[in-house]
Amino acid sequence: MKVTAIREISVPIGSSLRNSAFDFSEMTTSVVAVVTDVIRDGRPVVGYAFNSTGRYACGAQMRDRLVPRIMKAAPESLLDASGSNFAPEKFLACMMQREKPGGHTERSVAVGTIEVAVWDAVAKIEDQPLHAVLSERFNHGALARQVSCYVGGGWYAPGKGIAQLQDEIRARLAEGYTTMKIKVGGASLAEDLERVEAALHLVDGGAHLAVDANATFDRQRAHTYADALAPYALRWLEEPTDPLDFSLLAELTQRYAPPLATGENLFSTQDIANLVRFGRLRPDRDLLQMDVAQSYGIVQFSRTLEMLKAQGWQPSAVYPHGGNLMTLAVVAGFGLGGCEAYPGVFGPFAGFHDDARIENGMITLSERPGIGFEGQNELYALMRSLSS
Amino acid sequence: MKVTAIREISVPIGSSLRNSAFDFSEMTTSVVAVVTDVIRDGRPVVGYAFNSTGRYACGAQMRDRLVPRIMKAAPESLLDASGSNFAPEKFLACMMQREKPGGHTERSVAVGTIEVAVWDAVAKIEDQPLHAVLSERFNHGALARQVSCYVGGGWYAPGKGIAQLQDEIRARLAEGYTTMKIKVGGASLAEDLERVEAALHLVDGGAHLAVDANATFDRQRAHTYADALAPYALRWLEEPTDPLDFSLLAELTQRYAPPLATGENLFSTQDIANLVRFGRLRPDRDLLQMDVAQSYGIVQFSRTLEMLKAQGWQPSAVYPHGGNLMTLAVVAGFGLGGCEAYPGVFGPFAGFHDDARIENGMITLSERPGIGFEGQNELYALMRSLSS
Question: What pLDDT score was predicted for residue B70?
């Protein structure tokens, strides 16, 4: 029982989106296929993943180091104790050979993407949806059928004014979503407050509206926005500081009473430990938003969650970055707070199974084996081309 | 006046070295040539650099994003105010377009390597050694002729015992070095203390011996080693913790009175700000060891130094990682504490100008224009192949 090939391609995301920090016009992602010699339904089981959105493709790291390490390993050294399935934690350790401590992001995205693809294969071999496999291993088998899901939207775009923002929000509410996140920081404060108020006219109060500053504020502007936004009691204020500016974040936790959210631009367990400790985040209200595929994958995420629990954090405080089926499986499997969705953006690299239903802000899980990319046709067509 | 091409190759370092954390058997580096249309001595000026040691080659990031951004920029947008030379800070800003905040290492190595190569070209166009150019811009023109230089050595190797370690140290002292750094943490504490004592027999007291744990200790072992090493009053104890474990580092600053050193595995100004603040490092004794080429280059290093000065740190506390000519120029130009040297290891990717003299622990600077790779024959042969 072994991995027979690991293939990857870099695909442009082809998005014209812009937030307050940068645009996505050059953005790419790596799509990965882990091909095995295990036969199910007459065909080899193949695990798939992609490196989420916002970090560029990482195929070179895979080709130059990670895939050769896996392919050189003795096949039995990558199996679980029973010998009947792959052991993702052993793939992680194998890929991390000869990697210098620290400097995480150069490899964490590539390692995590391959690791998540291995989990897709593991769940397919068990003939279970990945969320069920994760729940059994990490969450006492608690089985979710639905997951809370909010819209990451409200991007800036040329010619997009208040009316177009409201059209976007109305469309999302009509689709069944109830909670909306919109960008701030890419316009003047006055303009952003107008956008917030326009959004509040449509959603069911501040608890259903979040805002995302995408890490662009300096100290002065962070304070100004925090003070101006506090009265709206929004669901959360996301990335009001540089991702690593824990001192400024700690100031804001003293100044801004409603929830803060951050973490999508930190990629290691130790960075998250520093974030909650030195950023003085509040376990009773703040949110953590790591991107699992970009941060060494699911095994390392389980270790981060253990570290967080020891610091007084509940899994319900975690809302992982990335509106895709990988995140959905992790949210359901670990019993996290909720999942992000990007309806209509990032092409095939956003969204869930094509037959997904959203009702009252909840998305119904697919029961397809694995992550379930086979139910997301446009993306699966790309993935399948890697293994045929 | 413009850059006409930027070329890179990935080269295996081909080293059998091992420290307590990992071995270098797969290690590679990217060698870069920034070719310009400026003519000096009848030939186009070419700036060279490589991505130091310990982080893998990063050519994909250069080819896919950084080089195209530079080549697409209007040539005049990359020049200084006089229009007669290139402006490295504009290359940095150009390369950072459409890069998401945080997640530094994925690009900081590639960005920094290209930026250092631009500086090599800038100094060649000024017909000055890079250290003189840097000194004029960043250090009030203070001109060094010599720089303090210590040996980063004492690696673990199969069959290498106390006698071989002492042979190594004797050879270095014979070459003119006076301060030696040896590895710890890759053996038992008893064995490592035996190595430390064997080294102390040869050098001129604890002030001339440093030890490097390469970030492998857990909390218990960090405490144990700190307590055992403190009585030797060594020059410094390097990387006794995970590079990002600022809490444990803060504990050690309370427990271990002699100097601590770290920073080579942090790659952004914000990470270094967090290190000195939350790690509670002591400006009166501790050392900071960023790798300039791996951390966005020289302009960003100057910003890190400004941040550090505002926190009470002197340039003399900085001993940058990387025993090579790039580091030497930066140490001399900014008036830093000292430079690392790796005699006999890392092949052409260590060492200085072939005619370098070491006397009483000081290395005499070359007066070749630029970084001076032209005086390091084996490395320059590699570099020249990129521009011919």
Answer: 98
Q: Quick one: closest CA in B to A25, which residue? A: B98
Closest CA to A285 of A264, A255, A305, A259: A259
Cα dihedral A320/A322/A325/A330 (nearest 10): -20
Q: Is the ipTM of this complex over 0.85?
A: yes
> Collapsing DSSP states into helix, strand and coil, what is residue B225?
helix
A282 contacts A311 by C-beta, under 8 angstroms: no
Instruction: Name which of B106, B266, B277 is nearest A109 (Cβ-Cβ).
Output: B106
Taking the Cβ of residue A18 and every Cβ of chain B, the question of whether any pair is shorter than 8 Å is answered with no
B274 touches chain A (CB under 8 A): yes
Quick one: residue B341, left, alpha or beta (phi over 0 = left, psi -120 to 50 = alpha)? beta
Is A245's Cβ below 8 Å from some Cβ in B?
A: yes
Asked if A106 and A301 touch (Cβ cutoff 8 Å), the reply is no
The SS3 of residue A239 is coil
Residues B358-368: pLDDT tens digits? 999 999 999 99
Grouping H, G, I as helix, E, B as strand and the rest as coil, residue B1 is coil
pLDDT at B388 over 80: no
Does position B19 have pLDDT exceeding 90, yes or no?
no
Domains of chain A are 3-127 (3.30.390.10), 137-385 (3.20.20.120)
Question: Which are the catalytic amino acids of A?
Answer: 183, 321
Tell me the β-bridge partners of A341.
A151
Q: pLDDT per residue over A179-231, tens digit each?
A: 999 999 999 999 999 999 999 999 999 999 999 999 999 999 999 999 999 99
Total CB pairs under 8 A between chain A and B: 125
Task: Give me the residue label for tokens 């000194």.
Answer: B135
Contact A101, B242 (CB under 8 A): yes
B204 Cβ contact list (under 8 Å, min separation 6): B178
How far is the CA of B287 from the CAs of B151, B252, B315, B320, B339, in angstroms?
A: 16, 14, 10, 9, 12
Determine the distance in angstroms separating the CA of B245 from the nearest CA of chain A, rounded to an integer. Answer: 7
Helices of type H across chain B: 59-61, 67-72, 88-95, 105-126, 130-138, 162-175, 189-200, 219-229, 246-255, 269-278, 298-310, 325-334, 377-387
Instruction: Tell me the nearest-neighbour CA distance from A291 into chain B, angstroms.
Output: 12
Catalytic residue, chosen from B90, B131, B183, B208, is: B183
Q: Is B54 on the interface with A (CB under 8 A)?
A: yes
What is the pLDDT confidence band of residue B275, given thresholds at 50, 70 and 90? very high
Q: Is B158 part of the contact surface with chain A (CB cutoff 8 Å)?
A: no
A250 reaches B (C-beta below 8 A)? no
10 Å Cβ neighbour count for A126? Answer: 16
> Pairing mode, if any, of strands A3-12 and B362-364?
unpaired
> Chain B partners of A267 at a C-beta cutoff of 8 Å?
103
d(CA A330, CA A339): 9
Chain A positions touching B97 (Cβ under 8 A) are: 22
How many Cα neighbours within 13 Å face the side chain of A312? Answer: 9
Model confidence, pTM: 0.97
Q: Are B107 and B60 in contact (CB under 8 A)?
A: no
Which of A65, A105, A244 lies nearest to residue B106, judging by beta carbons?
Answer: A105
Average pLDDT, chain A: 96
Neighbours of B109 (CB within 10 A): 30
> What type of residue sits at position B285?
R
- Which of A244, A249, A262 has the most B C-beta neighbours within 10 Å, making it the best mutation to test the interface with B? A244
CB-closest option in A59, A102, A105 to B244: A102
The residues in B 175-214 lying below 8 A from A, measured between CB atoms, are: 214
B72 inside 8 A of chain A by CB = no
Q: Both tokens of residue A82?
A: 């029973």
